[in-house]
Design a protein that fits this description.
alpha/beta, Quinone Oxidoreductase, Chain A, domain 1, Rossmann fold, 7-stranded mixed beta sheet, 29% strand, 6-stranded parallel beta sheet, 324 residues, 16 strands
Length: 324
């Protein structure tokens, strides 16, 4: 009996449930299974995950699109935005205490948060906004930081300027609309007719139905374009920019030749963790100036279904996996 109890305690302490992949492929490679619980090292914390957001980068990593850039080790746990409680601290971690409510965009080269527990660098973590729950907070960090960095760190969007946001009803897009409106920019968003009212409610001054309208015939001389679509949409976007304007893409590297042709700037953004910026976003959330839109909440065991939805490219707002 003693050995039985000891084994049970060891299992409870050392393992967790997670969604892992053991190789690249379709959503069927995502396996809901038991695995070893991670242990925080120097400058790290262990977080008990309550909710994990699902983002396009998740299925792109799953399909192997980034394997030439990152040498991922298997089994791999996806999901790099989450909200939860600090469970334990590694050596040298002093900012947080056990039980603190936190949220985070973690390093996409490490194991993510499709799991009951995740280890992250303490420097990447911020206190969760007080006025929302973990499900809402779990859908903010990666998408929110991507929008924030695109608008303010890269494009330097300012009051009185104009911005065209492609995919304005999506995960990154719906945050970008709210951030841009908060800084008193003129906001134009592309979306389907079904999402027009949603995007207007977020604060957009003008909404273009990308299915029935050519945005380049409706928009001229904007200061910033935020591209979350790529391809032909990205290339057509150069002609709507004013001289010296900037196209920021979060999906692919824009054409230098087209930028030179139209006398504008271009860049590709891969967002990075930032606790300080999460703090600023959290203040906007707690001031009721920004609200995460959660379209669907699924249990962790249904991560495959979440991937199938997000991969359509038509999700409104965010999809979140409820872990606890």
């Amino acid at each position: 009996m003693e050995n039985g109890k000891s084994t049970a305690v060891m299992k409870q302490t050392d393992t967790m449930l997670a969604v892992q992949m053991h190789g690249y492929g379709g959503s069927e490679v995502l396996k809901f299974e038991e695995t070893r619980r991670p242990v925080p090292g120097e400058g790290e914390i262990l977080v008990r995950v309550f909710a994990a957001g699902v983002n396009p980068i998740d299925y792109k990593v799953r399909q192997g699109f980034l394997k030439q850039y990152v040498n991922y080790q298997f089994p791999l746990i996806l999901g790099w935005e989450f909200s939860g409680l600090v469970d334990s601290l590694g050596n040298g971690s002093r900012r947080f205490r056990e039980g603190d409510e936190v949220y985070c965009k973690s390093d996409t080269t490490r194991n993510g948060a499709y799991a009951e527990f995740v280890v992250v660098r303490e420097s990447d973590v911020e206190f969760k906004p007080r006025t929302i729950n973990h499900i809402q907070a779990g859908g903010i960090p990666l998408a929110g930081l991507t929008a924030w960095q695109a608008l303010f760190e890269v494009a330097r969007l300012q009051a009185g300027q104009s911005i065209l946001i492609h995919g304005a009803s999506g995960g990154v897009g719906h945050f970008a609309v709210q951030f841009a409106k908060w800084c008193d920019a003129y906001v134009i968003g592309t979306a389907s007719k079904e999402n027009e009212n949603f995007v207007r409610h977020l604060g957009a001054d003008k909404v273009i139905d990308y299915k029935s309208q050519r945005f380049e015939e409706e928009v001229k001389g904007v200061d910033v374009v935020l591209d979350s679509v790529g391809g032909d949409v990205q290339n057509r976007s150069f002609k709507v920019l004013s001289k010296g304007g900037i196209l920021v893409s979060i999906v692919s590297q824009p054409s230098e030749q087209l930028a030179d042709k139209f006398g504008v700037r271009q860049t590709y953004l891969h967002s990075h963790p930032s606790a300080s910026q999460l703090g600023e976003i959290g203040e906007l959330v707690d001031s009721d100036l920004v609200k995460p839109a959660i379209e669907k909440v699924l249990p962790l065991s249904q991560a495959r279904h979440a991937h199938d939805i997000i991969q359509t490219g038509h999700a409104r707002g965010k999809i979140v996996l409820q872990v606890l």
